[in-house]
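Q: Give me the 3D complex with nicotinamide-adenine-dinucleotide.
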Amino acid sequence: MRIVVIGGVAAGMSAASQAKRRAPSADVVVFERGAWISYGSCGIPYNIMEPARTLDDLVVLQPDVARKERGIDVRVRHEVLAIRPERKVVEVRDLDQCAAREEPYDRLVVATGAVPVRPPLPGIDLPGVFVLRTLPDGAVLKRHVGETNPHEAVILGGGYIGMEMAEALRRRGLRVTILERAPQILPGHHDEIARTALEELKRNDVLVKTGVSVASVVQGATPGLLVVHTDQGAVATDLVLVAVGVRPDVTLAQAAGLKMGASGAVAVDDRQRTNVPHVFAAGDCAEATHRVSGLPVWVPLGTTANKQGKVAGANAAGADERFAGIVGSAAFKLFDLEVGRTGLGMREIRELGLDAVASVSRHRTRGHAYPGSRMIHTVLFVQRENRRLLGAQMAGGDAVAKRIDVFAAALQAGMTIDEVEQLDLTYAPPFAPVYDPILIAAGVAMKDLAGRR
Ligand code: NAD
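A: Here is the predicted complex, encoded as C-alpha coordinates.
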Protein backbone atom coordinates (compact mmCIF):
# COMPACT_ATOMS: atom_id res chain seq x y z
CA MET A 1 0.00 0.00 0.00
CA ARG A 2 1.39 3.39 -1.01
CA ILE A 3 -0.23 6.53 0.39
CA VAL A 4 0.89 9.78 -1.22
CA VAL A 5 0.21 13.16 0.39
CA ILE A 6 0.54 16.42 -1.52
CA GLY A 7 1.48 19.23 0.87
CA GLY A 8 3.45 18.94 4.10
CA VAL A 9 2.02 21.55 6.44
CA ALA A 10 -0.99 21.22 8.77
CA ALA A 11 -3.42 18.91 6.95
CA GLY A 12 -0.76 17.07 4.96
CA MET A 13 1.46 16.11 7.89
CA SER A 14 -1.56 15.23 10.05
CA ALA A 15 -2.73 12.95 7.25
CA ALA A 16 0.69 11.35 6.81
CA SER A 17 1.22 10.77 10.54
CA GLN A 18 -2.23 9.29 10.95
CA ALA A 19 -1.90 7.08 7.87
CA LYS A 20 1.40 5.70 9.13
CA ARG A 21 -0.06 5.09 12.60
CA ARG A 22 -3.07 3.24 11.18
CA ALA A 23 -1.13 1.28 8.57
CA PRO A 24 2.47 0.94 9.81
CA SER A 25 3.49 -1.24 6.89
CA ALA A 26 2.23 1.27 4.30
CA ASP A 27 4.66 3.39 2.35
CA VAL A 28 3.65 6.98 3.21
CA VAL A 29 5.21 9.66 1.01
CA VAL A 30 4.78 13.42 1.41
CA PHE A 31 5.67 15.81 -1.41
CA GLU A 32 6.20 19.39 -0.26
CA ARG A 33 7.44 22.06 -2.64
CA GLY A 34 8.83 24.25 0.18
CA ALA A 35 11.80 23.49 2.40
CA TRP A 36 9.84 23.44 5.66
CA ILE A 37 7.12 21.04 6.77
CA SER A 38 4.76 20.87 9.71
CA TYR A 39 4.87 24.40 11.06
CA GLY A 40 2.44 26.62 12.87
CA SER A 41 1.84 29.47 10.46
CA CYS A 42 -0.59 31.08 12.89
CA GLY A 43 2.39 31.89 15.11
CA ILE A 44 4.21 33.94 12.46
CA PRO A 45 2.94 37.40 13.55
CA TYR A 46 3.99 36.71 17.17
CA ASN A 47 7.38 35.54 16.02
CA ILE A 48 7.89 38.63 13.85
CA MET A 49 7.11 40.73 16.93
CA GLU A 50 10.24 39.41 18.63
CA PRO A 51 13.45 40.15 16.71
CA ALA A 52 15.55 37.69 18.75
CA ARG A 53 13.42 34.64 18.02
CA THR A 54 14.09 32.41 15.05
CA LEU A 55 11.23 31.27 12.83
CA ASP A 56 12.48 27.71 13.30
CA ASP A 57 10.67 27.88 16.66
CA LEU A 58 7.45 27.41 14.73
CA VAL A 59 8.50 24.14 13.14
CA VAL A 60 6.87 21.21 14.90
CA LEU A 61 8.60 18.44 12.99
CA GLN A 62 11.79 18.56 10.92
CA PRO A 63 11.81 16.41 7.73
CA ASP A 64 14.59 14.13 9.00
CA VAL A 65 12.74 13.57 12.30
CA ALA A 66 9.56 12.73 10.39
CA ARG A 67 11.58 10.23 8.39
CA LYS A 68 13.51 8.65 11.28
CA GLU A 69 10.95 8.72 14.07
CA ARG A 70 7.69 8.43 12.19
CA GLY A 71 8.78 6.48 9.16
CA ILE A 72 7.26 9.03 6.79
CA ASP A 73 9.08 9.49 3.50
CA VAL A 74 9.10 13.30 3.43
CA ARG A 75 10.42 14.85 0.24
CA VAL A 76 10.80 18.59 0.57
CA ARG A 77 11.43 20.79 -2.46
CA HIS A 78 9.39 18.36 -4.53
CA GLU A 79 6.54 19.91 -6.47
CA VAL A 80 3.64 17.84 -7.75
CA LEU A 81 2.88 19.03 -11.27
CA ALA A 82 -0.15 16.86 -12.05
CA ILE A 83 -2.41 14.16 -10.66
CA ARG A 84 -3.37 11.40 -13.11
CA PRO A 85 -6.19 9.51 -11.39
CA GLU A 86 -6.80 7.22 -14.38
CA ARG A 87 -3.35 5.68 -13.83
CA LYS A 88 -3.08 6.48 -10.09
CA VAL A 89 0.16 8.40 -10.43
CA VAL A 90 1.34 11.91 -9.65
CA GLU A 91 3.90 13.74 -11.73
CA VAL A 92 6.57 15.21 -9.45
CA ARG A 93 9.49 17.53 -10.00
CA ASP A 94 12.49 17.56 -7.71
CA LEU A 95 13.13 21.30 -7.55
CA ASP A 96 16.85 20.82 -6.99
CA GLN A 97 17.28 18.63 -10.05
CA CYS A 98 14.54 19.95 -12.35
CA ALA A 99 13.79 16.38 -13.40
CA ALA A 100 10.12 15.33 -13.41
CA ARG A 101 8.99 11.75 -12.92
CA GLU A 102 5.86 9.78 -12.13
CA GLU A 103 5.17 8.41 -8.65
CA PRO A 104 2.41 5.84 -8.12
CA TYR A 105 -0.19 5.91 -5.34
CA ASP A 106 -2.86 3.59 -4.02
CA ARG A 107 -4.45 6.39 -2.01
CA LEU A 108 -3.84 10.10 -2.45
CA VAL A 109 -4.43 12.95 -0.01
CA VAL A 110 -4.56 16.43 -1.53
CA ALA A 111 -3.55 19.00 1.09
CA THR A 112 -2.40 21.86 -1.10
CA GLY A 113 -3.67 24.64 1.18
CA ALA A 114 -4.53 28.17 0.17
CA VAL A 115 -2.65 31.00 -1.46
CA PRO A 116 -2.80 34.71 -0.71
CA VAL A 117 -4.86 36.86 -3.02
CA ARG A 118 -2.73 39.42 -4.84
CA PRO A 119 -5.00 42.08 -6.31
CA PRO A 120 -3.96 42.91 -9.88
CA LEU A 121 -2.65 46.37 -9.03
CA PRO A 122 0.23 48.14 -10.74
CA GLY A 123 3.29 47.80 -8.50
CA ILE A 124 2.02 44.84 -6.48
CA ASP A 125 5.21 42.90 -7.29
CA LEU A 126 7.64 45.69 -6.36
CA PRO A 127 10.36 44.96 -3.81
CA GLY A 128 9.04 46.02 -0.42
CA VAL A 129 5.56 44.58 -1.09
CA PHE A 130 4.94 41.41 0.93
CA VAL A 131 2.34 38.74 1.56
CA LEU A 132 2.25 36.59 4.67
CA ARG A 133 1.08 33.03 4.40
CA THR A 134 3.94 30.59 4.68
CA LEU A 135 7.00 30.35 6.86
CA PRO A 136 9.22 31.49 3.93
CA ASP A 137 6.91 34.55 3.53
CA GLY A 138 7.41 35.23 7.25
CA ALA A 139 11.18 34.84 6.94
CA VAL A 140 11.39 37.31 4.05
CA LEU A 141 9.29 39.92 5.86
CA LYS A 142 11.10 39.48 9.18
CA ARG A 143 14.49 39.81 7.49
CA HIS A 144 13.35 42.97 5.69
CA VAL A 145 12.16 44.54 8.95
CA GLY A 146 15.39 43.56 10.72
CA GLU A 147 17.76 44.67 7.98
CA THR A 148 16.19 47.83 6.55
CA ASN A 149 14.82 49.25 9.80
CA PRO A 150 11.62 50.59 8.21
CA HIS A 151 9.63 53.36 9.89
CA GLU A 152 6.30 53.10 8.10
CA ALA A 153 4.14 50.18 7.03
CA VAL A 154 0.93 50.07 5.04
CA ILE A 155 -1.28 47.02 5.43
CA LEU A 156 -3.83 46.37 2.69
CA GLY A 157 -6.77 44.60 4.34
CA GLY A 158 -8.29 44.97 7.79
CA GLY A 159 -8.94 41.25 8.32
CA TYR A 160 -7.25 38.75 10.60
CA ILE A 161 -3.71 39.10 9.27
CA GLY A 162 -4.15 42.86 9.11
CA MET A 163 -5.07 42.97 12.80
CA GLU A 164 -2.34 40.62 14.01
CA MET A 165 0.34 42.25 11.88
CA ALA A 166 -0.70 45.78 12.87
CA GLU A 167 0.15 44.82 16.44
CA ALA A 168 3.35 43.00 15.43
CA LEU A 169 4.69 45.90 13.38
CA ARG A 170 3.71 48.52 15.97
CA ARG A 171 5.60 46.52 18.57
CA ARG A 172 8.61 46.58 16.25
CA GLY A 173 8.34 50.39 16.34
CA LEU A 174 6.79 51.02 12.91
CA ARG A 175 4.00 53.46 12.25
CA VAL A 176 1.16 51.46 10.69
CA THR A 177 -1.66 52.42 8.34
CA ILE A 178 -4.40 49.93 7.48
CA LEU A 179 -6.23 50.44 4.19
CA GLU A 180 -9.48 48.45 4.13
CA ARG A 181 -11.71 48.27 1.07
CA ALA A 182 -14.95 47.51 2.94
CA PRO A 183 -16.82 50.21 4.89
CA GLN A 184 -15.51 48.71 8.15
CA ILE A 185 -12.56 46.62 9.29
CA LEU A 186 -13.36 42.94 10.03
CA PRO A 187 -16.22 42.96 7.50
CA GLY A 188 -17.53 39.54 8.60
CA HIS A 189 -18.14 40.86 12.10
CA HIS A 190 -20.98 42.83 13.69
CA ASP A 191 -20.24 46.56 13.82
CA GLU A 192 -20.14 46.46 17.65
CA ILE A 193 -17.12 44.14 17.37
CA ALA A 194 -15.50 46.02 14.49
CA ARG A 195 -15.91 49.34 16.34
CA THR A 196 -14.33 47.92 19.49
CA ALA A 197 -11.37 46.68 17.45
CA LEU A 198 -11.10 50.04 15.70
CA GLU A 199 -10.92 51.83 19.06
CA GLU A 200 -8.12 49.50 20.14
CA LEU A 201 -6.21 50.24 16.94
CA LYS A 202 -6.62 53.99 17.49
CA ARG A 203 -5.52 53.66 21.13
CA ASN A 204 -2.32 52.11 19.78
CA ASP A 205 -1.80 54.81 17.14
CA VAL A 206 -2.63 52.64 14.15
CA LEU A 207 -4.16 54.73 11.38
CA VAL A 208 -7.15 53.10 9.72
CA LYS A 209 -8.84 54.11 6.49
CA THR A 210 -11.97 52.23 5.44
CA GLY A 211 -13.90 52.26 2.19
CA VAL A 212 -10.58 52.78 0.40
CA SER A 213 -9.86 51.76 -3.15
CA VAL A 214 -6.15 51.19 -3.72
CA ALA A 215 -5.08 52.17 -7.25
CA SER A 216 -1.36 51.37 -7.36
CA VAL A 217 1.92 51.07 -5.54
CA VAL A 218 4.80 53.05 -7.03
CA GLN A 219 8.46 53.50 -6.26
CA GLY A 220 9.07 56.66 -4.21
CA ALA A 221 11.72 59.34 -4.73
CA THR A 222 14.30 57.70 -2.46
CA PRO A 223 15.47 54.07 -2.56
CA GLY A 224 13.19 51.75 -0.59
CA LEU A 225 10.38 54.29 -0.40
CA LEU A 226 7.00 53.23 -1.77
CA VAL A 227 3.88 55.28 -2.36
CA VAL A 228 0.43 53.69 -2.20
CA HIS A 229 -2.07 55.62 -4.31
CA THR A 230 -5.71 55.39 -3.28
CA ASP A 231 -8.96 57.21 -3.98
CA GLN A 232 -8.43 58.87 -0.57
CA GLY A 233 -4.96 60.18 -1.31
CA ALA A 234 -1.43 58.80 -1.34
CA VAL A 235 0.46 57.19 1.54
CA ALA A 236 4.27 57.04 1.59
CA THR A 237 5.68 53.94 3.26
CA ASP A 238 8.73 51.72 3.64
CA LEU A 239 6.82 48.48 3.24
CA VAL A 240 3.42 47.23 2.09
CA LEU A 241 1.83 44.07 3.46
CA VAL A 242 -0.93 42.67 1.26
CA ALA A 243 -3.42 40.84 3.50
CA VAL A 244 -6.60 40.89 1.44
CA GLY A 245 -7.60 37.27 1.92
CA VAL A 246 -6.73 33.86 0.55
CA ARG A 247 -8.12 31.48 -2.05
CA PRO A 248 -7.95 27.69 -2.07
CA ASP A 249 -5.00 26.29 -4.02
CA VAL A 250 -6.95 23.93 -6.24
CA THR A 251 -5.05 24.13 -9.52
CA LEU A 252 -3.88 20.51 -9.38
CA ALA A 253 -7.19 19.24 -8.03
CA GLN A 254 -9.20 21.00 -10.72
CA ALA A 255 -6.98 19.78 -13.53
CA ALA A 256 -7.37 16.22 -12.23
CA GLY A 257 -11.16 16.42 -12.37
CA LEU A 258 -11.86 16.77 -8.66
CA LYS A 259 -15.22 18.39 -8.10
CA MET A 260 -15.23 21.88 -6.62
CA GLY A 261 -17.95 23.14 -4.29
CA ALA A 262 -19.77 26.45 -4.68
CA SER A 263 -17.07 28.10 -2.54
CA GLY A 264 -14.37 27.20 -5.07
CA ALA A 265 -12.67 24.74 -2.70
CA VAL A 266 -12.60 20.96 -3.20
CA ALA A 267 -15.94 19.31 -2.39
CA VAL A 268 -15.51 16.49 0.13
CA ASP A 269 -17.81 14.24 2.13
CA ASP A 270 -17.49 13.77 5.87
CA ARG A 271 -14.86 11.08 5.29
CA GLN A 272 -12.77 13.65 3.36
CA ARG A 273 -13.38 11.72 0.13
CA THR A 274 -13.49 13.64 -3.14
CA ASN A 275 -15.57 12.59 -6.15
CA VAL A 276 -12.51 10.78 -7.57
CA PRO A 277 -11.96 7.24 -6.22
CA HIS A 278 -8.99 6.82 -3.84
CA VAL A 279 -8.44 10.58 -3.65
CA PHE A 280 -9.04 12.50 -0.40
CA ALA A 281 -8.70 16.23 0.28
CA ALA A 282 -8.18 18.06 3.56
CA GLY A 283 -7.29 21.45 5.02
CA ASP A 284 -7.36 24.89 3.45
CA CYS A 285 -7.97 23.53 -0.07
CA ALA A 286 -11.18 21.73 0.99
CA GLU A 287 -14.68 22.59 2.10
CA ALA A 288 -16.26 21.51 5.39
CA THR A 289 -19.87 21.20 6.49
CA HIS A 290 -21.09 24.03 8.65
CA ARG A 291 -23.05 22.42 11.48
CA VAL A 292 -25.35 25.41 11.96
CA SER A 293 -26.43 25.85 8.34
CA GLY A 294 -25.82 22.25 7.30
CA LEU A 295 -24.18 23.56 4.14
CA PRO A 296 -20.68 23.07 2.74
CA VAL A 297 -18.53 26.15 3.38
CA TRP A 298 -14.93 27.19 3.02
CA VAL A 299 -13.42 28.46 6.27
CA PRO A 300 -9.66 27.93 6.02
CA LEU A 301 -8.36 27.67 9.59
CA GLY A 302 -5.48 25.76 11.15
CA THR A 303 -7.37 23.61 13.61
CA THR A 304 -9.81 22.42 10.93
CA ALA A 305 -6.88 21.53 8.67
CA ASN A 306 -5.32 19.36 11.37
CA LYS A 307 -8.59 17.56 12.11
CA GLN A 308 -9.52 17.01 8.47
CA GLY A 309 -5.99 15.80 7.74
CA LYS A 310 -6.23 13.24 10.52
CA VAL A 311 -9.52 11.89 9.14
CA ALA A 312 -8.21 11.83 5.56
CA GLY A 313 -5.02 10.02 6.62
CA ALA A 314 -6.90 7.44 8.70
CA ASN A 315 -9.35 6.73 5.88
CA ALA A 316 -6.60 6.59 3.27
CA ALA A 317 -5.12 3.85 5.45
CA GLY A 318 -8.39 1.92 5.40
CA ALA A 319 -10.26 3.27 8.43
CA ASP A 320 -13.77 4.68 8.41
CA GLU A 321 -13.51 7.98 10.29
CA ARG A 322 -15.74 11.00 9.92
CA PHE A 323 -15.11 14.69 10.34
CA ALA A 324 -17.91 16.23 12.42
CA GLY A 325 -17.86 19.58 10.61
CA ILE A 326 -17.26 23.08 11.87
CA VAL A 327 -19.15 25.93 13.46
CA GLY A 328 -16.76 28.62 12.19
CA SER A 329 -14.94 29.44 15.42
CA ALA A 330 -11.98 31.83 15.25
CA ALA A 331 -10.21 34.26 17.55
CA PHE A 332 -7.39 36.75 17.47
CA LYS A 333 -5.61 39.15 19.77
CA LEU A 334 -5.22 42.85 19.05
CA PHE A 335 -2.94 44.60 21.57
CA ASP A 336 -4.97 44.39 24.83
CA LEU A 337 -8.13 43.26 23.11
CA GLU A 338 -9.27 39.73 22.39
CA VAL A 339 -11.80 39.07 19.64
CA GLY A 340 -13.62 35.86 18.83
CA ARG A 341 -16.51 34.59 16.79
CA THR A 342 -18.36 31.37 16.20
CA GLY A 343 -21.37 30.30 14.16
CA LEU A 344 -23.12 32.42 11.58
CA GLY A 345 -22.84 36.18 11.19
CA MET A 346 -25.67 38.45 10.03
CA ARG A 347 -24.60 38.26 6.38
CA GLU A 348 -24.79 34.45 6.34
CA ILE A 349 -28.07 34.54 8.28
CA ARG A 350 -29.60 36.84 5.65
CA GLU A 351 -28.23 34.71 2.81
CA LEU A 352 -29.97 31.69 4.36
CA GLY A 353 -33.22 33.66 4.57
CA LEU A 354 -33.45 33.20 8.36
CA ASP A 355 -35.10 35.69 10.69
CA ALA A 356 -32.81 36.39 13.62
CA VAL A 357 -32.26 38.97 16.30
CA ALA A 358 -28.77 40.42 16.79
CA SER A 359 -28.53 41.11 20.49
CA VAL A 360 -25.76 43.36 21.80
CA SER A 361 -24.69 43.39 25.44
CA ARG A 362 -21.76 44.79 27.40
CA HIS A 363 -20.62 43.55 30.75
CA ARG A 364 -17.73 43.45 33.21
CA THR A 365 -15.66 40.29 33.28
CA ARG A 366 -15.00 39.81 37.03
CA GLY A 367 -16.71 39.97 40.41
CA HIS A 368 -17.79 43.57 41.14
CA ALA A 369 -15.32 44.07 44.00
CA TYR A 370 -12.45 42.21 42.37
CA PRO A 371 -9.72 44.34 40.72
CA GLY A 372 -8.77 44.24 37.07
CA SER A 373 -12.24 43.74 35.63
CA ARG A 374 -12.48 44.39 31.88
CA MET A 375 -15.38 45.15 29.58
CA ILE A 376 -16.62 42.48 27.22
CA HIS A 377 -18.87 43.22 24.24
CA THR A 378 -21.08 40.36 23.09
CA VAL A 379 -23.30 39.98 20.06
CA LEU A 380 -25.57 36.95 19.88
CA PHE A 381 -27.56 35.94 16.83
CA VAL A 382 -30.71 34.01 17.71
CA GLN A 383 -33.31 32.61 15.34
CA ARG A 384 -36.72 34.07 16.17
CA GLU A 385 -38.79 31.11 15.08
CA ASN A 386 -37.23 28.42 17.29
CA ARG A 387 -34.97 30.47 19.65
CA ARG A 388 -31.92 28.56 18.42
CA LEU A 389 -28.53 30.18 18.91
CA LEU A 390 -27.02 30.82 15.46
CA GLY A 391 -23.82 32.65 16.26
CA ALA A 392 -21.83 34.61 18.81
CA GLN A 393 -19.16 37.29 18.62
CA MET A 394 -17.19 38.84 21.45
CA ALA A 395 -14.55 41.53 21.89
CA GLY A 396 -12.98 42.60 25.14
CA GLY A 397 -10.66 41.40 27.84
CA ASP A 398 -10.37 38.26 29.93
CA ALA A 399 -10.63 34.95 28.14
CA VAL A 400 -12.77 36.04 25.19
CA ALA A 401 -11.61 33.09 23.09
CA LYS A 402 -12.44 30.61 25.82
CA ARG A 403 -15.82 32.23 26.39
CA ILE A 404 -16.49 31.98 22.67
CA ASP A 405 -15.67 28.28 22.98
CA VAL A 406 -18.67 27.90 25.29
CA PHE A 407 -20.87 29.34 22.55
CA ALA A 408 -19.16 27.04 20.03
CA ALA A 409 -20.06 24.02 22.16
CA ALA A 410 -23.61 25.33 22.49
CA LEU A 411 -23.85 25.69 18.70
CA GLN A 412 -22.47 22.22 18.16
CA ALA A 413 -25.12 20.88 20.56
CA GLY A 414 -27.84 22.85 18.74
CA MET A 415 -28.90 24.72 21.91
CA THR A 416 -31.63 27.30 22.18
CA ILE A 417 -30.86 30.62 23.85
CA ASP A 418 -32.91 29.44 26.86
CA GLU A 419 -30.61 26.45 27.26
CA VAL A 420 -27.52 28.65 26.98
CA GLU A 421 -28.90 30.92 29.71
CA GLN A 422 -29.23 27.88 32.00
CA LEU A 423 -25.65 26.63 31.55
CA ASP A 424 -23.86 25.81 34.79
CA LEU A 425 -20.70 27.88 34.34
CA THR A 426 -17.96 28.52 36.87
CA TYR A 427 -17.96 31.51 39.15
CA ALA A 428 -15.25 33.00 41.33
CA PRO A 429 -14.55 36.76 41.45
CA PRO A 430 -11.16 36.59 39.63
CA PHE A 431 -12.79 34.85 36.65
CA ALA A 432 -16.34 36.10 36.33
CA PRO A 433 -19.21 37.93 37.96
CA VAL A 434 -21.92 35.72 39.57
CA TYR A 435 -23.53 35.66 36.15
CA ASP A 436 -20.82 35.19 33.55
CA PRO A 437 -21.06 37.60 30.57
CA ILE A 438 -22.12 34.51 28.57
CA LEU A 439 -25.22 34.09 30.73
CA ILE A 440 -25.88 37.84 30.84
CA ALA A 441 -25.71 38.00 27.03
CA ALA A 442 -28.13 35.06 26.75
CA GLY A 443 -30.54 36.76 29.15
CA VAL A 444 -30.35 40.01 27.16
CA ALA A 445 -31.00 38.10 23.93
CA MET A 446 -34.09 36.50 25.52
CA LYS A 447 -35.37 39.99 26.38
CA ASP A 448 -34.61 41.19 22.85
CA LEU A 449 -36.56 38.26 21.41
CA ALA A 450 -39.50 39.24 23.59
CA GLY A 451 -39.11 42.90 22.53
CA ARG A 452 -38.70 43.88 26.20
CA ARG A 453 -35.51 45.89 26.16
P1 NAD B 1 -9.33 38.07 5.71
O1 NAD B 1 -10.36 37.49 4.84
O2 NAD B 1 -9.40 37.86 7.19
O3 NAD B 1 -9.30 39.67 5.51
C1 NAD B 1 -9.07 40.26 4.27
C2 NAD B 1 -9.50 41.72 4.36
O4 NAD B 1 -9.03 42.40 3.20
C3 NAD B 1 -11.00 41.91 4.41
O5 NAD B 1 -11.30 42.79 5.44
C4 NAD B 1 -11.32 42.49 3.03
O6 NAD B 1 -12.46 43.33 3.05
C5 NAD B 1 -10.06 43.25 2.72
N1 NAD B 1 -9.78 43.51 1.30
C6 NAD B 1 -10.03 42.69 0.24
N2 NAD B 1 -9.57 43.23 -0.91
C7 NAD B 1 -9.00 44.41 -0.57
C8 NAD B 1 -8.31 45.43 -1.31
N3 NAD B 1 -8.12 45.31 -2.64
N4 NAD B 1 -7.86 46.49 -0.63
C9 NAD B 1 -8.02 46.62 0.70
N5 NAD B 1 -8.67 45.68 1.45
C10 NAD B 1 -9.14 44.60 0.83
O7 NAD B 1 -7.93 37.56 5.12
P2 NAD B 1 -6.44 37.70 5.68
O8 NAD B 1 -6.37 38.70 6.79
O9 NAD B 1 -5.60 37.89 4.47
O10 NAD B 1 -6.17 36.27 6.30
C11 NAD B 1 -6.07 35.15 5.43
C12 NAD B 1 -6.73 33.93 6.04
O11 NAD B 1 -6.05 33.51 7.20
C13 NAD B 1 -8.16 34.17 6.45
O12 NAD B 1 -8.93 33.05 6.08
C14 NAD B 1 -8.10 34.28 7.95
O13 NAD B 1 -9.29 33.86 8.58
C15 NAD B 1 -6.93 33.37 8.28
N6 NAD B 1 -6.27 33.82 9.51
C16 NAD B 1 -6.82 33.45 10.69
C17 NAD B 1 -6.23 33.86 11.86
C18 NAD B 1 -6.84 33.44 13.19
O14 NAD B 1 -7.74 32.63 13.20
N7 NAD B 1 -6.35 33.98 14.30
C19 NAD B 1 -5.12 34.70 11.84
C20 NAD B 1 -4.60 35.07 10.60
C21 NAD B 1 -5.19 34.63 9.45
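A quick observation: The chain is about 25% helix and 25% strand.
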